[in-house]
């Protein structure tokens, strides 16, 4: 409804339920109450979706869900609608509802088009006293109110300005006038058109005059001349054809020039980029932890040239220097991205190699540790044997000659230990154990 | 505004049923958005309704589809009133779907299909109790009659 109180051109609110959708809309996006695609939908606690307007209207008579009749709370605790549904609805293609406008856009953008951009949107008449609506393109204070009636200058009837031309064509009583030359009756405001296009008494030139025909007479005579075959027709046609060909050739030539220029530029760019990538790669590969900015160094000289005002020749294929700059920036970004990727690859490679080596070293350490453990065990066992034999010898010397079995055992143990335990035998048993423990520790620490 | 809402919804329905309707349902006339005529027939071989078509008259109020439409059988040559314990001989139908059981998600097509199945499932060749009296005395519109939906079997 027109809202005149707000001032300024006001418009009828967009009616989403009578929109024309360009493609068939999936049934799941249709409100079961109004049978049109959801507009501002909500979901009930029982999981059914309706347009907000539709469910509110339905709840006025029955406080249950229209589909499964589950009660719906007075405070309307609707669920939030999944955004994916909103997206689907926003993307539906609709036609602008204004008469005369064929604009098609996504439903999301229709409001903007209708309210701000469409020149056919009905707005309040610029005349403050007139309450009717007029298409936006006709609503200007200079045109004034198009609903005001004026007197038709021919039949003296009152007609609204907006409908004046329809009136002249159809229902004006005095709309016919006699052509002063051919005496035929024609619609009054079409008289000029009649004279220039069809009146047989008008003075005209042969239509092949561009080919050199000099015939010029009243239309009916010229027409006879044309129909009987003007000899200049072929010449004229040929000339026309040539002019047409020439425009096509010109067009093609200029396009070819553009393409060649663009190709040359692309080749230069590619060469420049290759050179740059090589130098960048070199500096990235070099292990130089002292200068963390080493990867950026080759980029530095690029920036001043990119930021300097581009030459006219460089921007030829672009609409504006801004476009050209944006294109350059995009290219730089791609290069940065490539470099970043290479860095990442390298990082991964290094990490892998490092891991490989450390695992091997770790394995070796573990092996050594286990060997040391075994050695440790042997040493302890030998020490114990040694201590036992010492104790037996001491006992034997105090309590008479030892029994043959025991002395044999001590002898055999001594011979089995061999020379390896000979140095331990001279030391204090406890000291030697500590020593061996210490050696085990240092090995493990390796 | 509600009348406009009804008109839009009916426009949509008409567009749909002009294109396609389930078997046994035919659109006879819909010259305006107030009164439509449809023919229905029973598709299985229930002996009560074989080889017969029945004419339904839908009348839509301004608050359709929030309020149910008024649906009755009408008697014209070749189109009798079907014999059913819930259908009075003047065409008035006692069906909760058309009264308290109405929901705005129902539509002309779904009502026709409900009536089709109501006839299909019937085996009794009789009128509702008190039919003669009701037909003689009743001056009310169907929506103003307080039906007592007692019988859920047929």
UniProtKB/TrEMBL annotation, chain A:
Residues 262-305, 387-446 are annotated as: Disordered. The keyword ATP-binding does not apply. This is Uncharacterized protein. Residues 403-422 have a biased composition (Low complexity). Residues 167-214 form the TRAF-type domain. Residues 279-298, 387-396 have a biased composition (Polar residues). It comes from the Eukaryota. A zinc finger (TRAF-type) spans 167-214. Residues 31-69 form the RING-type domain. Residues 322-349 form a coiled coil. It holds the Pfam family zf-C3HC4_2. Residues 262-278, 434-446 have a biased composition (Basic and acidic residues). SMART domains: RING (SM00184). The keyword Metal-binding applies. Keywords: Coiled coil, Metal-binding, Zinc, Zinc-finger. PANTHER family: TNF RECEPTOR ASSOCIATED FACTOR, TNF RECEPTOR-ASSOCIATED FACTOR 4. GO terms for molecular function: zinc ion binding. It comes from Parathielavia appendiculata. InterPro entries: Znf_RING, Znf_RING/FYVE/PHD, Znf_RING_CS, Znf_TRAF.
UniProtKB/TrEMBL annotation, chain B:
It comes from the Eukaryota. The keyword tRNA processing does not apply. Keywords: Ubl conjugation pathway. Residues 5-154 form the UBC core domain. Gene3D superfamilies: Ubiquitin Conjugating Enzyme (3.10.110.10). InterPro entries: Ub_conjugating_enzyme (IPR050113), UBC (IPR000608), UBQ-conjugating_enzyme/RWD (IPR016135). This is UBC-like protein. The lineage of its organism: Eukaryota, Fungi, Dikarya, Ascomycota, Pezizomycotina.
